[in-house]
Amino acid sequence: xxxxxxxxxxxxxxxxxxxxxxxxxxxxxxxxxxxxxxxxxxxxxxxxxxxxxxxxxxxxxxxxxxxxxxxxxxxxxxxxxxxxxxxxxxxxxxxxxxxxxxxxxxxxxxxxxxxxxxxxxxxxxxxxxxxxxxxxxxxxxxxxxxxxxxxxxxxxxxxxxxxxxxxxxxxxxxxxxxxxxxxxxxxxxxxxxxxxxxxxxxxxxxxxxxxxxxxxxxxx
Length: 220
Ligand code: SF4
Ligand code: SF4
Known about the structure:
Blueprint: E1 3-5, H1 14-18, E2 24-25, E3 34-35, H2 45-49, E4 55-57, H3 68-79, H4 88-104, E5 110-114, E6 120-125, H5 132-147, H6 151-155, H7 161-169, E7 180-185, E8 188-196, H8 201-217
Antiparallel strand pairs: 1-4, 2-3, 5-6, 5-8, 7-8
Helix pairs in contact: 4-8
The structure holds iron/sulfur cluster (SF4) (2 copies).
């Protein structure tokens, strides 16, 4: 049962900051923010922070705001582009960009790009990288794709009950540790990248960010 934003919204964006799966969006000129019903995990964090009580669980929406359920869903039907996952060539370039950046820092890593469902597209381990980094990189990418957020954001919430239950539900494939970033095309998630092997978590994140720069050159 997803949450819904009503027309009471004053567009201050407070809920966006707390949503653990990044499913609250708007566009320039829109009168309010909207929740993607296909992604919302029912964690109620947005409802707690909304200063004007504009957010309700869909089954609790007051009758005078009943239209909000369809308004929220319609926003995503209209604005989510129908695009495929990250193209293999793009994924390959991203992985190699991550490797190049890792080399510049004197480290050896594994970089993995997965599709929006978390299935691997390209996984490559540099010479000298620890064999275990292959699985870790895929898990970070899978986690970013599954939760629609940077894995560093999840790390801070690893002890939250809602996240612990989801970790169990994903059968151990979730790794809430820094080094996984979502790959967007507009507001549509087309995959994720994960990197493991840095001496620090920051180095994994920097490799991911270097890889995402590939998308800018491709006009995403
Ligand atoms: S209930 Fe949780 S997952 Fe759903 S929109 Fe609100 S903060 Fe995001
Ligand atoms: S916190 Fe409430 S008022 Fe602010 S953007 Fe979200 S729904 Fe709108």
